[in-house]
Amino acid sequence: MESVLLAVGTKKGLFVGRRRRSRPDADWEFTGPHFPMQAVYSVCIDTRGSRPRLLAGADSSHWGPSVFRSDDLGAHWHEPSRPAVKFPEYTNTSLVRVWQLHPAGPAAPAVVYAGTEPGALFRSDDGGETFDLVRSLWDHPQREHWGAGYGGQAVHTVVTDPRSADTLMVAVSSGGAYRSSDGGASWEPCNTGVKAEFLPDHYPEFGQCVHKIAQDPTDPDRLFLQNHGGVYRTDDGGAQWSEIGKGLPADFGFPIATHPRRGGVAYVFPVNDGSDRYAPEYHCRVYRTDDAGANWTALGGGLPTEHHYGIVLRDALRTDDNDPAGVYFGTRNGEVYASADEGDSWRLVAWHLPDVLCVRAAVVA
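The line above is the sequence of Exo-alpha-sialidase; the predicted structure tokens follow.
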């Protein structure tokens, strides 16, 4: 029987929820916390194989960071005897945490990428069991000039092209976005048009504080970007970005997500910039564009309308692959909201959790 799986990574463990696919009104059944006392900054639901595989990037204050895997939807977890992600000795660097676990497209069915802090990219060719450093990005001459955002310097976003295993993009906080068209052998910055208002040159070649990038499902060359001040779109794979934040109550925010099938549909959770950093008017609202950023619609049905102080971090707003698509977000005050109708209405499905750091959802058997 098919169900929707919802993985919620928090400051103190991972929670895994399921509900029947055919019953969007059914209650979610959660297990967890898995990895209690460990911060789960990244989680992946890889549905490319004969059975789903879950990967979780957990961070223990005592034992350090690790990548766990489960092939039975979280009932049992395996931690490798040797670290799955580890910096080679020549780098004179140690892993702080894994910020991103991303399965590559169908052209590379066993490949999983890991983005880390400090800012680096690792590649696995065995479904996430072992990873190797992508040395070309680590050795890039601009890397030593990357800054560190408030959350630290990290490769926090990986985007792969479903048409070709050789095309991928990463986002670095705060180094900007980089693109490779040769499978990661070389990298070029792709930040033209994205503003870095905190730098003397507001439009530098690199150094932007990119918060998240999401790919359009119908045109892989179209991507949406939430920046530290500004929402952007590119239609040419990152060669040129254009601002699309007009119509939003604030153009600052952390996450951005796209619809799994409908082109031009993207979701953001705006927050005020500056010392406030709460949702505008303290209203909990997701905004959706159905026309690639020309217009935005507030989606608040079922969400708190006042005195709401939770914000959504960069990896805590996602869609699933259901039809109609589900949309999910978790807040820093431990709430998880779900929509079974593409954002038109919402309901609270988990509460009183630790800070939500990331969410992922997918249809599984």
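Note on the example: Helices lie at 135-138. The chain has a mean pLDDT of 96.
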